[in-house]
Amino acid sequence: MRNILIIDDEDDIREVAALSLEATAGWDITTACCGADGIRAASDPERRPHAILMDVMMPGMDGPTTFRKMQLDPEIAGIPVLLLTAKVQGVDQRRFAGLGVSGVLFKPFDPLTLAAQISEALGWKD
Amino acid sequence: MTDAADKTANLLAALWVRIRPLVEERLATLDQAAADASAGTLGEGLRAEAASSAHKLAGSLGMYGYDEGTRIARELEVLLGGAQPDAARLGGLIAELRGALFTQG
After folding, report:
1. Fewer Cβ neighbours under 10 Å: the N or C end of chain A?
2. Could you tell me what percent of chain A has a pLDDT over 70?
3. Which of A119, A116, A54 is nearest to B5 (CA)?
4. Between B8, B58, B62, which is nearest A23 by CB?
């Protein structure tokens, strides 16, 4: 079973994403409310995620900074990361895509198709 | 609807009820920013806080099916991105947003 780590400071976004991925794809979900907790969760060898869905704008350590920190840890650097953003301007989208993440998804997402969007972005066939 | 779609729709409806106070809180921040803008006293702190509230509303309302709410919140975010947002436009958009969220169709 796929295990997805969701990192977002907004409680309702985490909850909707988690519920929708569990309900529509049957994936196992771990959540974290900030970048530092997200790095700790990703580093847990018992629950190493297959992918990370992470918000861009978070207080303290934002998504891009958290991603760059993850890349410094060889244990978790290989985990695909999808950034989640409500920024719709092209310049922002290109900046995020240029970080080296596996993809950028947009808020608000459709809870019924979020799992399909993630699978498509990561090339997952199942 | 599939079982998963039914289940997700039910969960979203329940969650919308639960987060409504948070939505009201964000609208209240926008109201305060509009009032201060109207009085010519909108400071940088409240402007940034209101822009953040608009950003969060824009990023979440569509999840609950309020696509028009997301569109209006995005306009508010852009408007609040300016140093001196137009108070009348701000107030009009906030009223429009409330209408999109809470007026029965």
Report:
1. C
2. 99
3. A116
4. B8
Residues of A in contact with B74 (CB under 8 A): 88
**Which of B3, B60, B68 should we substitute to test contact with A (largest number of A Cβ atoms within 10 Å)?**
B60
Reduced to 3 states (helix: H, G, I; strand: E, B; else coil), residue A28 is strand
A28-53 pLDDT per residue, tens: 999 999 999 999 999 999 989 999 99
Strand order, beta sheet including A3-7: A28-32, A3-7, A51-55, A81-85, A103-106
Domain ranges of chain B: 20-102
Burial of B89 (0-12, 13-18, 19+ CB in 10 A): middle
Distances (CA, A) of B35 to A43, B84, B94: 47, 13, 11
HSE, CB side, 13 Å, CA atoms: give it for residue A5.
Answer: 26
* Average pLDDT along chain B: 93
- The fold for domain A3-120 equals Rossmann fold (3.40.50)
Residue B104 has pLDDT above 60, yes or no: no
pLDDT greater than 60 at residue A66: yes
Does B8 reach chain A within 8 Å, measured CB to CB? yes
Place of tokens 């529509």: A24
Nearest Cα residue to A67 out of A97, A90, A94, A93: A97
The nearest CA of chain A is from the CA of B81 a distance in Å of 13
| pLDDT per residue as tens digits for the range B37-88 | 999 999 999 999 999 999 999 999 999 999 999 999 999 999 999 888 999 9
